[in-house]
Specification:
The protein is of the alpha/beta class. The chain has 13 helices and 10 strands. The chain has an 8-stranded mixed beta sheet. A two-stranded antiparallel sheet has the order 6-10. The two termini are 35 Å apart.
Length: 298
């Protein structure tokens, strides 16, 4: 049996729904709603299990991150976690949450994961009493607890295609998400080297900004084949940008203070106003691109 291809991290979003409406969310969660029936149906336990079974034959990941939206809004979350554990595809199950609903979760949740990462947002702080309770419950269940402290979000998604392929290539080659943080994901029967890609192609098409939904073009279709392992290696190491990269400024976007979108901003779909011109941090881009050109450092 061929040796499993080992990667650092793999992600899966168990829901698009979120209890927050963060400006610059790179999964565009505030703009998903009940009208996104087709996309929402692609997130289901049966499909998740099928993808894991296919991948586990060829790939092993050091950690598997369960996210959303807000994953605690997924009513079948414990079933997803049990399925993931039984697959044997990962050494560590990591739950990523904003933590606002975490203190009220059942004990079974804390025993189903190896680590919980809480995103601490400056605009929606977790009450100290709840935070203390979370810490105690993690200690009791012997669950590792970590925090992302987020006072700012970086602009990433743009709604107008970047027509400069050279700049797109530099953005891709210096993208921390793809090359350093290994934000690979699975969705709807495909493996993605970028966790934003499944959402971006869909939303651009939904808003009439592109002629066709290209999300599946950006992913590697998971098919039961002896060659799947080789195809995974080739796909994840490719230096060719995805189509999604033409609608993203990667890790060189401007920083904006974390805040919650208003109902009006969501209804007006303010994200479609974003362009490379108003999203790119030119000085940061200059520094990262220069390092890449000179010494290949991301």
């Amino acid at each position: 049996m061929p040796e499993l291809y080992r990667i650092e991290k793999l992600e899966y979003d168990v829901t698009n729904e979120c209890n927050l409406k963060c400006d610059q969310c790179d999964h565009l969660a505030p703009f998903f709603n009940g009208g996104d029936t087709e996309f929402n149906r692609s997130i289901n336990l049966e499909e998740f299990s099928r993808q894991l079974m296919l991948l586990a034959k060829h790939l092993h990941t050091n950690s598997f991150w369960i996210l959303g939206g807000e994953p605690l809004l997924q009513k079948q979350l414990l079933d997803y976690l049990a399925c993931l554990r039984s697959s044997g595809i990962t050494d560590k199950i990591v739950l990523v949450t904003n933590g606002l609903m975490l203190a009220q979760q059942p004990d079974a949740l804390f025993h189903a994961v190896d680590k919980i990462m809480i995103s601490l947002y400056s605009s929606t702080p977790i009450p100290q009493q709840s935070l203390h309770k979370i810490v105690r419950r993690c200690e009791t269940a012997r669950v590792e607890l970590g925090f992302f402290s987020k006072s700012h979000f970086r602009k990433t998604i743009v709604a107008k295609r970047n027509d400069d392929p050279h700049q797109v290539g530099l953005i891709f080659q210096t993208c921390t998400n793809a090359w350093n943080w290994h934000c690979h994901a699975i969705h709807d029967g495909h493996l993605y080297r970028c966790a934003t890609a499944p959402f971006l192609g869909y939303r651009l098409h939904r808003e009439g900004l592109v002629e066709r939904d290209f999300r599946k073009d950006d992913g590697l279709k998971l098919e039961d084949s002896p060659e799947l392992g080789d195809r995974i290696r080739e796909y994840l190491s490719s230096s060719i940008p995805l189509e999604s990269c033409f609608y993203c400024v990667g890790c060189v976007g401007k920083l904006v203070r974390h805040r919650q979108l208003s109902k009006k901003e969501i209804e007006e779909k303010t994200w479609i106003r974003s362009t490379v011109a108003n999203s790119l941090d030119k000085w940061k881009a200059f520094r990262k691109f220069s390092r890449w050109r000179l010494i290949g450092q991301r």
